[in-house]
């Protein structure tokens, strides 16, 4: 059964058991190239005079209006180490961006087409979603040298519905390896529940509890070939390390929620 018809029973069983599932060859080379080239165009037209440093370690720099408003925009976020002590870029902007988010799935034709495809819907439907809808999208550059680690987290922390329904789709647009910062996951961690929430309060955001401590020996790497897709349960703990290679490790991700019979809290960012 092809992915156009959704997941096979074996794939569904693995996802339910482990909290993630890798689907090789989901996207064709031309589809990957189309997204990469489209992002190159968006970045070329980006004016870096207004920006936010995206801190993936302490995450305090996320708490500004630029980040807050990015939920409904195509916004660019620089790496922390992209700047010198005088706040000047140390390299071209193309090598300085951490990610772009968080509404390409709505606002850009190429990303909207990819994010709202029949294949995306079929996968969600095969997992029991009745009216799935993408709620967030990100293009992640994972720059060489300065591409920071992403600390262990759960996607439901940031956009949890009631009842929980977040399903993450993460595509490797080029090969993702341990050297260039592939994802690491804790299998079966989705069965241990949500550890903390990221809450909106007025024009600011905060975490309700401190970052949990995790046993790092429980993480396993998920290396992926270009075009592969990994599905992530909203409660699955995952992370990525720094990119130690000489090239970017581009990836595109969306988060899908169930909109039939669920409540999306106003406290969600």
TrEMBL record:
Q: What GO MF terms are annotated?
A: metal ion binding
Q: Which InterPro entries match?
A: Phytyl_CoA_dOase-like (IPR008775)
Name the domain of life: Eukaryota
Q: Does the keyword Acyltransferase apply?
A: no
Q: What is this protein called?
A: Phytanoyl-CoA dioxygenase
Keyword Metal-binding found: yes
* Lineage, uppermost ranks: Eukaryota, Viridiplantae, Streptophyta, Embryophyta, Bryophyta
Q: Which coenzymes or cofactors are required?
A: Fe cation
UniProt keywords, alphabetically: Iron, Metal-binding
What is the organism field in this record? Physcomitrium patens
């Amino acid at each position: 059964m092809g992915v156009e018809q959704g997941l096979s029973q074996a794939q569904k069983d693995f996802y339910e058991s482990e909290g993630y599932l890798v689907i090789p060859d989901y996207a064709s080379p031309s589809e990957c190239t189309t997204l990469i080239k489209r992002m190159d165009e968006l970045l070329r037209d980006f004016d870096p005079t207004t920006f936010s440093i995206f801190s993936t370690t302490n995450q305090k720099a996320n708490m500004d209006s630029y980040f807050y408003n990015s939920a409904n925009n195509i916004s660019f976020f620089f790496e922390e180490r992209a700047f010198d002590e005088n706040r000047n870029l140390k390299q071209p902007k193309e090598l300085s961006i951490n990610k772009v988010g968080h509404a390409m799935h709505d606002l850009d034709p190429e990303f909207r087409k990819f994010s709202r495809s029949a294949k995306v819907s079929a996968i969600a439907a095969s997992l029991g979603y009745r009216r799935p809808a993408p709620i967030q999208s990100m293009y992640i550059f994972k720059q060489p040298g300065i591409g920071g680690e992403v600390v262990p987290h759960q996607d439901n922390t940031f956009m949890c519905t009631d009842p929980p329904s977040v399903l993450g789709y993460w595509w490797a647009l080029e090969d993702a390896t341990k050297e260039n910062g592939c994802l690491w996951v804790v299998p079966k961690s989705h069965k241990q529940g949500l550890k903390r929430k990221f809450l909106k309060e007025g024009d600011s955001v905060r975490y309700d509890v401190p970052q949990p401590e995790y046993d790092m020996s429980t993480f396993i790497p998920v290396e992926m070939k270009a075009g592969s897709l990994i599905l992530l349960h909203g409660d699955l703990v995952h992370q990525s390390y720094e990119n130690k290679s000489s090239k970017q490790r581009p990836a595109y991700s969306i988060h899908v929620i169930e909109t039939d019979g669920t409540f999306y809290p106003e406290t969600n960012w």
